[in-house]
Structures are given as structure tokens and as C-alpha cells.
Design a protein that fits this description.
By secondary structure, the chain is α/β, with parallel strands linked by helices. The chain contains eleven helices and ten strands. It is 36% helix and 14% strand. The strands form two sheets. The protein has an eight-stranded parallel barrel with strand order 3-4-5-6-7-8-9-10, surrounded by four helices. The protein has a two-stranded antiparallel sheet with strand order 1-2. The model has no long low-confidence stretch (mean pLDDT 93).
């Protein structure tokens, strides 16, 4: 396993991070601990979760318990690490998304990064994870109704209390990331150490502004959806029912667009020509990108987890990387 520095934190994290958004569904509760333990055995020391993962209706599938009958992803991670593994692992969690029906329960309309919401949610996250500190605590999304300096001061208080080690951002536009850095500098607060963003061979929009800004100011990218929801995992995986957009219950359209599928087929041809497994090639391309510290994989079972591990030390040559760049180039830069 390869380990990389996470921003300016001094922490070294595994380049493969275990994502837990669908814990309790795939893997089901009985298999979640086995998956976590196998990840540790393989050298993974970074686990990504959130207070809104696992037991929400958006993840429901046929054949698994309904949301109200499932433990949260944080609880399953806490159960898996119980018994002495906690200090071997860097745990990341998040706050901002909707966790209830109350007016201050967070979500896209705002309120999820208020002092009230954060202070309440961090205590629940600590209880579910069965720990007294969170290594990396993300602002999961921008809160459109809460001033960022209020949020940053609250996160600073959590660091000073020892409940959070490092703060981070997730799904922020570049200008809002820069505001967070400016606020932290102006108020002498701990700055964010990384930015979690959707990034893969298909989704390359962050290359225009976010990646250069992270490179300039020392933040790492922790990349979610690194193989585009299974798009770059090979034709067998793409034929599954719950893949791509269909992993979220509310999505009723196709898992992938026709253009997505054509790109994936060209990617498959390259992998077969080179003799490189699909997942390994997709992750190796991602891990070759500047500022990327890790790929957050949502493995549904141990076989999928093990298939991702070789990418941690796999290196595509310059010609192969250039070929993949041509298959799915980044979108045109907006004209200013």
C-alpha cells in the first residue's frame, strides 16, 4: 500500500480509502465488519463516512432492510473498529446534509453548518463511532444560509476541545474554498487540509479551478466516485441493476448515458489491449493526477475491495495516461 501526505496536516493516508455511504445495504450489516477488517489487513488506514450515510431512504434497495431498520454507516464503522483498532485508522466524517424533518436539521436549503447543528451532530457522530475524536471532519456541502466564519469558528472550537483533529471541505466550489482559506487566515483559525470532490476520468470539471487552487495552497483532493459509479469497472459490473445513478433510490433514469457508455467501451478496449484490469487502470489514472491523495472506493464486498488494491502501487506509463486523457478530456474551460 502507498501512503501520501494529506495536505499540510502531516498525516499519511492510504491512497485507497474505504467509503461507507452504502454500509448496511451493500455490504449488509453482517458483512460490514468483515469488509473493514479486510481493508485494515490490506493496509488501508483511511475510512470515510458521514452522519447521513447508510440508514436513509435514498439508499433503499429490494432485498435489504428498510432505512428505519438499518444501523447508520457510522454505527457500523464503530462496531467494526471496536476492540483495539481505532488508533490504527484515520476516520473522516461529515456534517451538513439533512438528518431529520426539523427546521434546523440541515440539508440543501441550509442550516446544516450552524453552530447549533454542528455541536449537536458531532456528539451523535462520536457516540455512533464509539470514539472520543474524529480525525478529519468535513463540511459536507456549502450551507447557503450560514456565514462561513460562524462555521469555521465552530470547527475551531471542536479542534480546541480535542473532538476533531483536522477540518476539511467537501463539494465546495473553488471560490468558496478560497473564502474558507481567507477566513481561517483572517481569524487565525486552523485551515482545511483537504477537499473531497467527485473526480474520475469522466468527471474532470474540477481540473479548471479547484485542482490548481488546491495545488497552490497545499490542500489535497480526496476523490469520491473514482470509477464513476462503476462505469470504469468493466462491462460485467455495468450490467448490474444497482450501478451508477441507480445506486440512489430517487433516480429513475438510466444508470449511464449513451455517451458515458461509449467512453467506457473505449476505456475497456485500452485496458484489454494493455492487459491491465479495468478498476486498476481507472484508479491508477486518478492517482496520477496532481494533488490527489486518495481514491474513496465504495466496495460492496471483499472481492471488489481486493480488486482496487493493486492500483495503490500501479503506474501507467506516459503514453497510457495520454491515451486515457484523450478518451475523456476535461470539459472546455468557461470563457471569462
Amino acid at each position: 500500500m502507498e501512503y501520501r501526505l494529506l495536505g499540510l496536516s502531516g498525516l499519511r493516508i492510504s491512497t485507497i480509502c474505504l467509503g461507507t455511504a452504502r454500509f448496511g445495504i451493500a455490504p449488509v450489516e453482517a458483512d460490514a465488519t468483515k469488509l473493514v477488517q479486510r481493508a485494515l489487513d490490506l493496509g488501508i488506514n483511511f475510512i470515510d463516512t458521514a452522519n447521513s450515510y447508510g440508514n436513509q431512504t435514498r439508499f433503499d434497495r429490494e432485498g435489504v432492510p428498510k432505512a428505519e431498520q438499518r444501523k447508520s454507516a457510522e454505527e457500523l464503522v464503530g462496531d467494526a473498529l471496536r476492540g483495539g483498532h481505532r488508533h490504527d485508522v484515520i476516520i473522516a466524517s461529515k456534517v451538513q446534509e439533512k438528518v431529520g424533518e426539523g427546521p434546523n436539521d440541515g440539508g440543501p436549503a441550509g442550516g446544516g453548518l450552524t453552530r447549533k447543528h454542528i455541536m449537536e451532530q458531532v456528539e451523535q457522530t462520536l457516540r455512533r463511532l464509539q470514539t472520543d475524536y474524529i480525525d478529519i471532519y468535513y463540511m459536507h456541502h456549502v450551507d447557503p444560509t450560514t456565514p462561513l466564519d460562524q462555521t469555521m469558528r465552530t470547527f475551531e472550537d471542536l479542534v480546541r476541545q480535542g473532538k476533531v483533529r483536522y477540518i476539511a471541505l467537501s463539494n465546495f466550489p473553488a471560490w468558496k474554498m478560497m473564502e474558507a482559506l481567507w477566513v481561517s487566515d483572517r481569524l487565525a483559525l486552523n485551515p482545511p487540509v483537504c477537499m473531497e470532490m467527485r473526480y474520475n476520468l469522466l468527471d474532470r470539471g474540477i481540473e479548471h479551478e479547484i485542482l490548481p487552487a488546491c495545488q497552490q495552497y497545499g490542500l489535497s483532493i480526496t476523490a469520491w466516485s473514482p470509477i464513476a459509479g462503476g462505469l470504469f469497472a468493466g462491462p460485467e459490473i455495468r450490467s448490474r441493476e444497482y450501478i451508477g445513478r441507480r445506486r440512489i433510490q430517487r433516480w429513475e433514469g438510466p444508470a449511464f448515458s449513451e455517451t458515458d457508455t461509449l467512453i467506457a467501451e473505449r476505456f475497456d478496449e485500452c485496458c484489454e489491449q494493455w492487459g491491465v484490469p479495468y478498476v486498476e487502470a481507472g484508479l491508477a489514472w486518478l492517482l496520477s493526477r496532481p494533488t490527489v491523495a486518495c481514491a474513496i472506493i465504495g466496495a460492496e464486498d471483499i472481492a471488489e475491495l481486493e480488486a482496487a488494491i493493486p492500483a495503490a502501487e500501479s503506474k501507467l506509463d506516459a503514453e497510457q495516461l495520454a491515451t486515457l486523457d484523450q478518451i475523456a478530456p476535461p470539459p472546455p474551460r468557461p470563457f471569462f
